[in-house]
Amino acid sequence: MEECVRREEEGEKEEKQGEEEKKEEEEEKGEDKEGSTENKERIRKESKFCYHTFGVGMEHLPLRHEENGAARATRENDPQREDLRGNFGNLEARASIKRLEFKHTRKNRRSLLYIDDTPDSLLEEDASTFSPQSVGRLVGGSLLLARPGLGGAGTTAGGGGGARDVGVLGVKEDKEEGELAVPRDGKSRRRYRSRSLSQSSTDSYSTSSYTGSSSEEDEISPREKSQRNSKGSSDFCVKNISQSAFGRREIEIAEQEMPGIVALRKRAADDKPLKGAKIVGCTHINAQTAVLIETLVELGASVRWAACNIFSTQNEVAAALAEAGQPVFAWRGESEEDFWWCIDRCINTENWQPNMILDDGGDTTHLMLKKYPAMFKMIKGICEESVTGVHRLYQLSKAGKLTVPAMNVNDSVTKTMFDNLYSCRESIIDSLKRATDVMFGGKQVVVCGYGEVGKGCCQALKGLGCTVYVTEIDPVCALQACMDGFRVVKLSEVIRQVDILVTATGNKNVVTRDHMDKMKNGTIVCNMGHSNTEIDVNSLRTPDLTWEKVRSQVDHVLWPDGKRIILLAEGRLVNLSCSSVPSFVVSITSCTQALALIELFNAPAGRYKSDVYLLPKKMDEYVASLHLPTFDAHLTELSDEQAKYMGLNKAGPFKPNYYRY
């Protein structure tokens, strides 16, 4: 009995369901009829779509209902016949668009976008390659096609009928992208779908790759190109001389934040204290360095310049310098062979012999001493601004191979306190954020080295909520770290738990393969010291490990068990490879370098012997005074009685050379 009742209920249910389906089909057939003016108007009101671009509301497009129940927008039926191409941004230049169609099928809720007469080369691209002003509104690569009255979080789109709340039509990816769909007119069109919101929300953008280009032209090595500037000179080697206009704008922006070096340029331009100086430079080539180079030229020097880091060069800035007539040999992404070739081109050239060296890392000094020893003896002075380069100078001096005087700019107060501390305190955060989009709060970080660079990194990371550990070999620096609230550990004690590792020692093999084998999955590894020696990157280039390029200066190194670490800038300076440094701080360092060159070049014979010297305290104070007007700072002056009591000159210097700030 119960079985009979159950079968009877199921039969009634199936009969009812069949009647509902039949009714729905009849309704759809009725909707597809276009004979009734009233029906046309109802469809027009209910199915009108709004295509919303960034800040531009397009006119509402009329719809013509298809026999299959889909809504279709055609430009031919638009009574206003507005030219849609004006709202399509870059798409207009890439494709001839006659008609834009949007189809929404009721049964499977599938949204399709058709573009007529569009080249396959355009249609085969991913949706993310469309410009933001292309069809519809692109948010993280997703195309939003809006319709009034649709549910979900709304946005406001301005159209012909005024602003309306609109929702987002999702895309059901039931077929492969690029599949041809045949609409009612029988004309085949490639179906193109936007990516889903959930997919595009994971996309990120980093401005760390703002230099360079992906064009085939830029794949050619600059050494193989034949380039000339507007003056007809070819005495340079840069990525693309046509980028000079962009580089010039960046240099002009940097000048606004470099008051000290600009003030020095104006004060000494008439005296030309570097007239006759032939300076070979090897530093980072960016907008800030360009201001220094042009200042040296303004002061009378002749220069030739190469880059001290293969990843820190701003190609457009190098092009701007070359266009201005400065022999520059540098581009971003040099090989090791290119690196030494560029330095050699600066040193060894016809009718020009250097008499001064401005070095960062000691590479120019090393190459000239090894390859051109006779030329090295003619050098009047060397200025070195890095820890690594200073160590090499002291080693040469100790071995009796340093035959010229050298100025240790790195350990000057203005370089140590401001460039090393304050600059790194800002640039470490900027670099990590741009490269990895990391959230700092709660992360465990180990900083190797607690010198001025390490201090700046620790302060910045601690300020953003990181738990910071410090490794240090010097008991004085270790005690400073403890007093500043950091735990001093051995790297092996915390290597398994840290999320971020930063090196700032100036030494080599601080982080070895054994350390990296023990790191947890996703650890970020970067260097704030010098060169690429602090992290043993070569040990990672083995067959058992896989390298994946993520974006510019960001690599994933994969272990066989699936673990990966995130290596930034291949172990080179992360703040100059993945971001930049504050121009104001570089102004302080640039002034120090310029004054050191002036001092060595104009010093009478016998004042400086073949040794390494610190910048005179008076010059440190002068550099600082050039930057005080920026802050509207006013110094207190000593009275005669006070100066006599302290045993000081009223004009300075105010501290002895052994004083530590």
UniProtKB/TrEMBL annotation:
| Coiled coil start-end | none
Cofactor annotation comment: Binds 1 NAD(+) per subunit.
Q: Which PROSITE patterns match?
A: ADOHCYASE_1, ADOHCYASE_2
The family assignment reads: Belongs to the adenosylhomocysteinase family.
Q: Where is the composition biased (Low complexity)?
A: 195-214
Compositionally biased intervals (Basic and acidic residues): 1-21, 30-44
* UniProt GO cellular component terms: cytosol
Name of the protein in question:
Adenosylhomocysteinase
